[in-house]
Design a protein that fits this description.
The complex is a heterodimer of chains A (282) and B (261). By secondary structure, chain A is mainly α. Chain A has helices at residues 3-32, 50-57, 59-93, 98-105, 107-110, 115-124, 129-136, 150-174, 178-186, 191-220, 223-229, 236-247, 250-281, and strands spanning 35-36, 43-44. The mean pLDDT of chain A is 88. The chains are: A mainly alpha (282), B mainly alpha (261). At the A-B interface, helix 1, helix 3, helix 4, helix 5 and helix 6 of A face helix 1, helix 3, helix 4, helix 5 and helix 6 of B.
């Protein structure tokens, strides 16, 4: 294939992704240094740090940021713990139903953020399935508060983003020859040892990749926290969403978005550092 | 073999995790058939009344139509652009292949809310806010990475010697494409179209920010109703249908791809 033909084939997609996807991020940087007087829609295009000062000076926004950060960290750890056995089972034991199981595991991803969350509202609400079941079994007398708090949001985020962890782990386990596990087992290693000494070290790149995906997705999620938090859990992305869609203060929303982006880049850099230092020590 | 209980513990744990993953979706489907006036599970008495209400509701019909139209056009454009690019990258093997792949797959890793906020402010500056072209551009952008990933993998698996053989037997480049490359790439094309359509159809995050009042998709309508009025059974009924449709596409897609291998 001639280089010009190749370039012509690739060009439309590249132009689109550059113009519509990358350029807005650059505009975001600029916009976050502009200012919009609260209550008006006129933009002051002189350079100012006012938006960032407002975030740093307001405990409401800082509190939202803090909640979001630790919530995302907890969600990432839970996703990892749940995905490890599931991913290994799908790769090593599922046999012919492997494709079907992968399909089912990615279902929350392609169903969008909203619809599975609606189902969760029903499961978790005071009169919902879980509380009803526990009451009829006589385990609890009054309903557990599972909705409108951080617990509910955490459950929703884990459910929504589990596929982001499962897929990289499946790829990671597929890359490890079964013989390694068999060798360790035949030498008498108990199951936990096989995990700790064979599987986990070899899976680390996949674990880092999956953790990054889940952490970033949780950090920027706003549909799930809004629906399951019922307005009582303030996450950073829902603050940015409110400013952009309801208050229409785009410079301030951009500054909030920039803060999210900064934490994502930080997480990404940390992930890259971990992977590289592992590669060196191996 | 000793320690039988661990042999049983793994499958049970795996089943429990899968159940947790799928329970909300199953609940949504079952509660759509409830005859009562509130959203509940398990359903008390089965009825189809909410499906009737859903189809009788002009507002819902319109938003479903908008979602379908948007999904069809966006996925068609995205798959076309992605396939052309994948063909160039896989067959041309240019030096910039890695850079282009990173760019095309970027929306999978970068946060869409952040991007949508930026896009919203740009659209407002150039007057694309709330218009169909603006919405289409955004949906092509979020669906293209899914299509690109599948198409790059699909074309990468096609043996180039098959094309070379057809060419050496005297087939024109167009004929080679039409009779060799296209049939071999068909499963990938179908599944990338399906995934792109689903991603576009079910998107809330980006659409709710840039849709405006004129082109409200179903997920956006459901999300805004949810915040103002809480959950109503009509939303559940339509949501259940969408989820069933999505499940069917994913399962059939998996089968198709497996058969092709």
């Amino acid at each position: 294939m001639k280089p010009t033909v190749t370039a012509l084939l690739v060009a439309p997609a590249v132009v689109l992704m550059f113009g519509v996807f990358l350029l807005p991020f650059l505009f975001l940087v600029v916009l976050s240094f502009w200012y919009q007087t609260p209550g008006s829609l006129s933009l002051d295009t002189n350079f100012t740090l006012a938006n960032y000062a407002r975030i740093l000076g307001d405990s409401y926004f800082l509190g939202g940021l803090w909640t979001t950060l630790w919530l995302s960290a907890v969600v990432t750890v839970i996703c990892l713990v749940l995905s490890l056995p599931l991913a290994r089972w799908i790769v090593r034991r599922a046999g012919r139903s492997k494709g079907l199981l992968i399909g089912l595991s990615i279902l929350p991803l392609v169903c969008g953020a909203l619809l599975p969350t609606l189902g969760l509202v029903n499961l978790l609400s005071p009169l919902g399935f879980i509380n009803g079941l526990l009451k009829s079994m006589g385990i609890i007398k009054t309903s557990l508060p599972l909705l409108g708090n951080v617990l509910g949001v955490a459950i929703g985020l884990v459910q929504a983003f589990l596929p982001l962890m499962i897929l990289p782990l499946i790829t990671a386990i597929e890359g490890i020859p079964v013989d390694y596990e068999k060798a360790a087992m035949s030498l008498g290693a108990p199951r936990l040892q096989v995990w700790r000494r064979v599987l986990l070290p070899l899976m680390l790149p996949g674990i880092v990749a999956g953790s990054l995906l889940v952490f970033c997705a949780s950090l920027t999620a706003f549909v799930t926290p809004q629906v399951l938090g019922q307005g009582k859990v303030v996450t950073f992305a829902s603050l940015a969403y409110q400013q952009a869609a309801l208050v229409l203060d785009w410079p301030f929303a951009s500054a909030l978005a920039m803060v999210m982006l900064a934490f994502l880049l930080l997480a990404g850099a940390l992930g890259a550092f971990v992977t590289r230092s592992l590669a060196r020590s191996a | 073999m000793k320690r039988r209980w661990t042999d049983l513990a793994w499958p049970v744990a795996v089943a429990a995790i899968l159940l947790f993953l799928l329970a909300p979706i199953l609940v949504l489907i079952f509660s759509a058939f409830d005859g009562g006036n509130i959203f509940r599970f398990p359903p008390q008495n089965y009825s189809l009344r909410w499906f009737e209400t859903a189809f009788g509701h002009a507002e819902y019909r319109k938003s479903l139509w908008v979602s379908t139209l948007l999904g069809l056009i966006a996925s068609a454009i995205a798959v076309t652009l992605a396939s052309l690019a994948a063909l160039g990258l896989v067959r041309g093997r240019p030096g910039y292949r890695f850079a282009v792949e990173v760019l095309l797959l970027a929306p999978l890793t970068l946060p869409l809310v952040v991007w949508a906020i930026a896009l919203l402010s740009i659209y407002a500056q150039i007057g694309l806010n709330g218009t169909l072209p603006g919405l289409l551009l955004a949906h092509v952008t979020i669906t293209l990475p899914f299509a690109a990933r599948i198409m790059i993998a699909t074309l990468g698996e096609i043996d180039p010697t098959l094309e070379a053989a057809a060419k050496s037997l005297g087939a024109t480049p167009f004929r080679v494409f039409w009779r060799v490359t296209l049939p071999l790439a068909l499963p990938g094309l179908l599944s990338s179209t399906a995934i792109a359509f689903l991603v576009s159809f079910n998107d809330v995050v980006v659409t709710t920010l840039i849709a405006g009042a004129g082109w409200i998709t179903f997920p956006v309508r459901a999300f805004s109703r949810l915040r103002t009025e809480g959950i109503d059974p009509t939303t559940i009924a339509i949501g259940a249908m969408i989820v069933v449709f999505t499940m069917a596409v994913v399962i059939v897609g998996q089968r198709l791809l497996k058969l092709s291998r």
